[in-house]
């Protein structure tokens, strides 16, 4: 598969600016050939304001940003895009993304690229046609993955428990917990963990495993 | 409406046993006439183990527990139930609950009784027929409501922000954030906040408001 994906856990890291913690990876991912990035801000009410935030950041990195909501024909805009960035839970039909156009996602925009959106942290606000996602990779991601806080008195379920409950369903895919600060780079059949934090991999029926930045996670692609 | 509901934020409070923090309210809610409580453990894989936990606790309070999964005809079991307790996100058809049978919910079982399940904290694992819930009350609840932690470096969205995003959708109902330790008692057209913690009420387009235990929230029922 001629896929190129940069799947980021979070858009903003504590103490830094918008997309600052991954800006070098963005530059090398989109490279010099990409001039314009199509931004999909459908999931937020104030699309113009959110597009401006992305536009300002990408401009500083040397890329123009087009908001899909500004296009006369949004489907055509996706088909013609040199590159795509989705930061929220917008589901755009899979066929539009299957041709090697670089796809960058962050947060729920990362869920969209995976097998299903079932491991999002968002509340299920808008009823989607299904929980299936684009399927550019055959596993799920949990962005903003959060370790249990040993000092917390809160009895809400931990993220690990929720993922374990997801895996009680038969034939559910593996879930990569991407902590804030980490991201996954996928190029064809090669997947590499980037960033500054470990990721935690949950495979159904097995004990969770930690991976350090730089780890080769290509085995997750051969499902 | 001849409804009787006890909608609890959480089954276990830090430092206490299962349902311990609300046991007095359970006793006065079900009272002396109820002998058997129908327990709905569908959402969890190990239904027998979970039913045993509930059975042991309710037995100590003087009630027998029947697991709905043990019934030959589950629909009939709901129709004949003297009282119902749902602790997880099981959606049982609304008509079965409209006749004044006392309904106790906790956590996602509380979401089930409200207008919609959109303000659950659970991951959207099983694709439901819709996000509509039983609608025994015309508003939503967010159980395990959690205040932002000022010391956290985590950039995931706060609960308040998620509820605000929910209210970006038109005509979405009010959301009562039930902190751990709090519960709502509904009898007919009267709703009272019980427990040991404040609740936080989010009305679309308005500033959130705090309510103390003992507050009369009946105005939420007249929507």
TrEMBL record, chains A, B:
InterPro entries: Class_I_gatase-like (IPR029062), Peptidase_S51 (IPR005320). It holds the Pfam family Peptidase_S51. NCBIfam families: PRK05282.1. Its EC number is 3.4.13.21. GO terms for cellular component: cytoplasm. Belongs to the peptidase S51 family. This is dipeptidase E. It is found in: Cytoplasm. Hydrolyzes dipeptides containing N-terminal aspartate residues. It catalyses: Dipeptidase E catalyzes the hydrolysis of dipeptides Asp-|-Xaa. It does not act on peptides with N-terminal Glu, Asn or Gln, nor does it cleave isoaspartyl peptides. GO terms for molecular function: dipeptidase activity; serine-type peptidase activity. One of its GO terms (biological process) is proteolysis. Keywords: Cytoplasm, Dipeptidase, Hydrolase, Protease, Serine protease.
């Amino acid at each position: 598969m001629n896929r190129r994906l940069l799947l980021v856990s979070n858009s903003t890291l504590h103490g830094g600016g918008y997309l600052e913690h991954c800006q070098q990876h963005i530059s090398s991912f989109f490279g010099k050939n990409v001039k314009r990035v199509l931004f999909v801000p459908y999931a937020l009410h104030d699309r113009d304001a959110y597009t401006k935030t992305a536009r300002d950041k990408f401009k500083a990195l040397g890329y123009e940003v087009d908001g899909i909501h500004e296009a006369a024909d949004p489907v055509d805009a996706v088909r013609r895009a040199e590159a795509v960035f989705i930061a929220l839970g917008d589901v755009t039909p899979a066929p539009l993304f299957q041709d090697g156009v670089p796809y960058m996602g962050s947060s729920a925009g990362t869920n969209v690229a995976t097998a299903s959106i079932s491991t999002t942290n968002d509340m299920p606000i808008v009823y989607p046609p299904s929980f299936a996602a684009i399927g550019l990779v055959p596993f799920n991601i949990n962005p903003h993955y959060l370790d249990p806080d040993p000092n917390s008195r809160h009895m809400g379920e931990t993220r690990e428990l929720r993922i374990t409950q997801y895996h009680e369903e038969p034939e559910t895919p593996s879930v990569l917990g991407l902590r804030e600060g980490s991201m996954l780079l996928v190029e064809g059949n090669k997947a590499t963990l980037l960033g500054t934090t470990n990721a935690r991999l949950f495979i159904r029926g097995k004990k969770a495993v930690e991976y350090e930045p730089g780890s080769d996670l290509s085995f997750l692609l051969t499902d």
